[in-house]
Design brief:
Helix content: under 10%
Structural class: mainly beta
Oligomer: single chain
Order of helices and strands: EEEEEEEEEEE
Radius of gyration: 13 Å
Largest sheet: 7 strands, mixed
Shape: globular
Length: 122
């Protein structure tokens, strides 16, 4: 069972990035998938989550209106589209799989990817 997060990089403020989370070894169709992030010296925080079939999403207030989460179960992939990026969005972004639904509590997530670094700087 593995989750592979990718798509991070160094971008300027106001730019966009799309992160991908690809699952292998299990079908994401049975799990909600969430994105979390962790900045240096800070705790991991919830960013967004999508339920198993994609018809329910939840997004943290700090990124609402700028980030969108979606999924393609045929490709076992979940996306985090990030726009109007700010320096405070700089963090390692992790995706996780939650059998209990699209929720914000990291302790509920059963599987985690290795993370992808997003740096927003001019």
């Amino acid at each position: 069972v593995q989750l592979q997060a990718s798509g991070g990089g160094l971008v300027q403020p106001g730019s966009s990035l799309r992160l991908s989370c690809v699952a292998s070894g299990f079908s994401t169709g049975h799990y909600a998938i969430g994105w979390f992030r962790q900045a240096p010296g800070k705790e991991r925080e919830f960013v967004a989550a999508v339920n198993w079939n994609g018809n329910y999403t939840t997004v943290a207030d700090s990124v609402k209106g700028r980030f969108t989460i979606s999924r393609d179960n045929a490709k076992n992939t979940v996306y985090l589209q990030m726009s109007r990026l700010k320096p405070e969005d700089t963090a390692v972004y992790y995706c996780g799989a939650n059998p209990r639904g699209a929720r914000s509590r990291s302790l509920e997530y059963a599987y985690w990817g290795q993370g992808t670094l997003v740096t927003v700087s001019s």
